[in-house]
Write a structure and sequence with these properties.
single chain; about 325 residues; alpha+beta; Immunoglobulin-like; 15-stranded mixed sheet
Length: about 325
């Protein structure tokens, strides 16, 4: 074959096109390989959380949760103060058993106390079934004012529990007797959440009271509550920890008196003026630990336990958040 100028130019064009196509192929393969091997950054999984809503005298919440650490986020959308207390009854006790054997006794006793029949009222509690003395309180969410959301972080073992609120209506009757009790099953499945890290540690004791170095600047805090011991106080319940925001018209003596349910004016709606409850950790056995979170803005606050004479037991501690 002879190469003239035309043939030569055609040959150069063919070589150029072949080289260009080969180049595109290499680039295409390289781009495909890069797309295949790279992946977007994975987002951290959301922590396990149970959303609980109260609209009236109810707990709108799941029936079953996994064992281990779990976040309890409680939205009190009602117009009354509530809390969540976790009851661990002896094996075999059902919700029907509680409604038939326990709630009527408390209802009758409270009615007598409201009528001023103190001796008869407390005598009524002797009618509680013998197995009621074996109930163990496993924590829960502290007192929460209307239209407030509170968050506690708790650890539970597999089993059957009951959650309740025994704050009193303005009629003097316990919320539990009005239907605020619900069965909760903790399954054998294990929550992936590990024990949280705390910003502030609180040591709680029925003997020495509240030991804490409270925060002083605004911010979001995680509080660790260690129950160093536990005891039954004069109001027949053990100590817990509640966070309160104190407005300008708050009266500490009124708050302290209100924390004793035995008084017809105690633990009843409405709560004392100028007091906003922000949650906390409800009663737990000695040696147990619970957590709660709160967003603190400038103002006065207090930690308080639901016991008689809280200030005399060092279970009422006031602190201030400054600018």
């Amino acid at each position: 074959m002879k190469f003239n100028k035309t043939t030569f130019r055609s040959f150069k064009v063919i070589l150029y096109l072949a080289s260009f196509i080969a180049f595109l192929g290499i680039q295409s393969c390289g781009s495909g390989t890069q797309t295949e091997t790279s992946s977007p950054e994975e987002e951290a999984p959301a922590p396990p959380m149970m959303e609980i809503v109260t609209e009236t005298m109810d707990f709108q919440m799941p029936d079953t949760i996994p064992a281990g650490w779990y976040i309890w986020r409680y939205h009190n959308n009602s117009n009354q103060t509530h809390f969540i207390l976790i009851d661990d009854y002896p094996d075999g006790i059902t919700l029907d058993s509680i409604k038939e054997r326990v709630l009527p006794v408390f209802g009758n006793g409270m009615s007598l106390l409201n009528e001023g029949k103190t001796d008869e009222g407390f005598a009524e509690f002797a009618n509680l079934p013998s197995w009621f003395s074996e109930v163990v309180w496993r924590g829960g969410v502290g007192l929460v004012s209307p239209e407030v959301t509170a968050e506690s972080i708790l650890q539970l073992s597999p089993g059957v529990y009951f959650v309740e609120c025994y704050v009193k209506m303005n009629t003097g009757m316990f919320h539990t007797n009005m239907g605020m009790i619900k069965k909760l099953v903790v399954s054998d499945e294990i929550s992936p959440m590990t024990e949280p890290k705390a910003d502030i540690s609180i040591r709680l004791s029925g003997e020495s009271g509240i030991s804490v170095d409270p925060p002083s600047i605004p911010g979001s805090y995680t509080f660790k509550v260690e129950f160093l011991d536990q005891k039954i106080h004069e109001n027949f319940v053990s100590h817990d920890l509640n966070l309160v925001r104190l407005q300008d018209n708050a009266n500490l003596k009124d708050l302290e008196a209100w924390m004793d349910w035995r008084d017809p004016k105690g633990l009843i709606e409405p709560a004392p003026e100028g007091v906003i409850f922000l949650g906390g950790v409800n009663d737990m056995p000695a040696g147990d630990t619970g957590y709660f979170t709160a967003q603190l803005v400038p103002g006065q606050y207090a930690f308080v336990s639901e016991v008689p004479n809280a200030s005399g037991k060092n279970l009422l501690k006031v602190f201030e958040i400054t600018q």
